[in-house]
Amino acid sequence: MASFQNFMFFFFFSLLLSPSIACDRCVHRTKAAYFSSSTALSGGACGYGDMASSFNGGYIAAATPELYRDGMGCGGCFQIRCKNPKLCTSGGVKVIVTDINKSTQTDFVLSSSAFTAMAKGGMARDIKRLGIVDVEYKRVPCEYKNHNLSVRIEEISRKPNYLAIKVLYQGGQTDIQAIDVAEAGGWNWRFMTRNYGAVWNTTHAPAGPLQFRMVVTGGYDGLMVWPEKGIPAEWKAGAVYDLGSQIRAVAQEACSPCDASDWH
């Protein structure tokens, strides 16, 4: 059984490396609005809950379904700047996707703090008064200076077999396409499935301390990530476990030109 699961995992991995016409770092133009409530993005579709407000200094956003991508876009980072040079800076703001935006008027709805961070000094009230602004955006790598890739054990987890995890602090610029779990040091890998957003689960979690492996990809390349650490045998619901390493890869793009520079 383990050999079959490994075959399927690597077969699936090979399928993910087919060329794509997507170009995340190309600059796109759209409109952006903001949530007036500071808690509007908490408990969003990605499942981060109250933790969302602590990400990136609270600079978070809900993104259109095309960017949310059935949850695969959760945790993705974007640099967004408004197109009014009298009102806004040229660097804009970097945000993390934590929710889905179902509005047809804008691609992004930002937290209030992220929206005003696009403005020049003393212009915060002016940009908020507009409510919706023309912007351009591109995807950028996520950077977490004080966090490794981590998982949170969801409260719906039930020992011994049902395990649900939420992936946190995913660095770099890639998408998590697949996650496997096995007993630490073992090779009897079990597939996990995306429950919703950033939450993955399995009804066949092995016993003992657990290790993970992940397929991350984007553009036309991909790689397998083997975190240095896992979770203990006595894992606890609600606990966050540091996986001991970070994803720093930036996916290669299949189109040209792309803007890989940092706006300032």
TrEMBL record:
Q: Is Signal found in the keyword set?
A: yes
Instruction: Tell where it localizes.
Output: Secreted
Note the CDD domains from the entry: DPBB_EXLA_N
Please report the stretch or stretches of sequence annotated as the Expansin-like EG45 domain. Answer: 43-147
Keywords of this protein's UniProt record, alphabetized? Secreted, Signal
Domain (Expansin-like CBD): residue spans on this chain: 161-243
Q: Which domain of life is it from?
A: Eukaryota
Which Pfam families has this protein been placed in? Answer: DPBB_1, Expansin_C
Output a single Gene Ontology CC term carried by this record.
extracellular region
In the UniProt record, the signal sequence range is: 1-22
Transmembrane segments in this chain: where? none
Similarity field? Belongs to the expansin family. Expansin B subfamily.
**Protein name, UniProt field:** Expansin-like A1
Query: In which organism is this protein found?
Result: Acorus calamus (Sweet flag)
